[in-house]
């Protein structure tokens, strides 16, 4: 069977439908089974579309298999009425799910894989593959552990992402920072978590598809887009959005999360996360600088005419990226 047919018939439907099957599961064993199904469906993506597929596939399999083993073992132990050890079992189940998501201090495998995979696999790993662990974490979590991991994720992502030229590593640390907000949201409200995750996935999708199209891996490669004004504008405002800069679309998901978290959690933690999110703006600044310098020597009237001639598809996504969808807050509230 050809590779494309195998991926189209078996793998892609399996990886797309597994999170939806998981939401209808009513036992820890069925959740574990769907996790393994999702694991085995992502490995062909790694094998078929990456240069270092042997190392990446083995590393991903070992990490996910170990965390799945912890998950199924301690979830079975929960069925036994050891009330003195219930807290320990809950913590171990949480740790197994956090390892699957790549949260600090278990993030090294996630950064390494993101730095060695192609853009489409990076998109899947940073968004779609986090759905099942996060929904599983909603069923049983320790509040103080989530507070600790969220604070640690915010701090490490804001500090470790400052000195990198690789855009894949920058996107990785950005994903960890957004993951800290998603972890806080899933404790408070499933609706705010869904809105935040959906918004992040849309913005991430729009950025990675363009980076994949032009095969951009490092910051200095943005100069290759010097004559492509459409893509420069599109990438610039999408990076503004993912960094949470108002009045971009990405700011609305942070704004709604801050309003909800302000009413339901410890204020110092929220303030710390806001400060750390502001620091992530610094490692996006180098990307902004490279993109803005592409317009430095351009005749502004020519640039305006090129901007008017955008095709309809680019105009639509540019509009979505630039303006906040403030109407989304109506049904949230």
TrEMBL record:
Record's keyword terms, sorted: Electron transport, Membrane, Mitochondrion, Mitochondrion inner membrane, NAD, Respiratory chain, Translocase, Transmembrane, Transmembrane helix, Transport, Ubiquinone
GO cellular component, one term: mitochondrial inner membrane
Gene (UniProt): nad2
Keyword Chloroplast: no
InterPro entries attached to this UniProt entry: Complex_I_Subunit_2, NADH_UbQ_OxRdtase_chain2, ND/Mrp_TM
Transmembrane region(s): 5-22, 28-49, 56-74, 80-99, 194-211, 231-249, 269-293, 313-332
This enzyme's EC code(s): 7.1.1.2
Family the UniProt entry places it in: Belongs to the complex I subunit 2 family.
UniProt domain NADH:quinone oxidoreductase/Mrp antiporter transmembrane: residue ranges: 25-277
GO terms assigned for molecular function: NADH dehydrogenase (ubiquinone) activity
Pfam families, per database record: Proton_antipo_M (PF00361)
Recorded superkingdom: Eukaryota
Function summary: Core subunit of the mitochondrial membrane respiratory chain NADH dehydrogenase (Complex I) which catalyzes electron transfer from NADH through the respiratory chain, using ubiquinone as an electron acceptor. Essential for the catalytic activity and assembly of complex I.
Reaction(s) the record says it catalyses: a ubiquinone + NADH + 5 H(+)(in) = a ubiquinol + NAD(+) + 4 H(+)(out)
Biological processes annotated in GO: mitochondrial electron transport, NADH to ubiquinone
Protein name stated in the entry: NADH-ubiquinone oxidoreductase chain 2
Predominant place of localization: mitochondrion
Subcellular location: Mitochondrion inner membrane
């Amino acid at each position: 069977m050809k590779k494309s047919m195998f991926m189209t018939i078996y793998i892609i439907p399996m990886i797309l439908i597994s999170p939806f099957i998981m939401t209808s599961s009513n036992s820890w064993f069925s959740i574990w089974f769907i996790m393994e199904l999702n694991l085995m469906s992502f490995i062909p993506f790694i094998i078929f579309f990456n240069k270092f597929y042997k190392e990446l596939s083995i590393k991903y399999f070992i990490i996910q298999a170990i965390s799945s083993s912890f998950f199924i073992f301690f979830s079975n132990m929960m069925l036994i009425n050891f009330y003195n050890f219930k807290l320990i079992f809950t913590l171990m189940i949480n740790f197994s799910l956090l390892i699957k998501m790549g949260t600090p201090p278990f993030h090294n495998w996630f950064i390494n894989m993101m730095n060695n995979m192609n853009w489409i696999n990076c998109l899947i790993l940073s968004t779609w593959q986090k759905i099942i662990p996060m929904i599983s974490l909603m069923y049983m979590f320790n509040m103080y552990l989530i507070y600790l991991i969220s604070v640690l994720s915010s701090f490490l992502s804001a500090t470790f992402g400052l000195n990198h030229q690789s855009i894949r590593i920058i996107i990785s640390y950005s994903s960890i920072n957004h993951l800290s907000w998603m972890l806080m949201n899933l404790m408070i409200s499933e609706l705010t978590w869904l809105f935040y995750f959906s918004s992040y996935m849309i913005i991430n999708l729009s950025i990675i598809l363009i980076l994949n199209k032009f095969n951009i891996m490092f910051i200095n490669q943005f100069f290759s887009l010097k004559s492509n004004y459409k893509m420069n504008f599109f990438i610039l405002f999408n990076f503004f959005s993912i960094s949470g800069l108002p009045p971009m679309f990405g700011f609305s998901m942070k704004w709604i999360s801050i309003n909800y978290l302000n009413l339901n959690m410890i204020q110092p933690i929220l303030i710390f996360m806001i400060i750390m999110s502001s620091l992530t703006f610094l490692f996006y600044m180098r990307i902004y600088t490279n993109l803005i310098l592409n317009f430095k020597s351009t005749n502004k009237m020519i640039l305006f005419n090129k901007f008017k001639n955008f095709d309809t598809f680019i105009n639509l996504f540019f509009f979505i990226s630039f303006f906040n969808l403030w109407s989304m807050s109506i049904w949230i509230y």
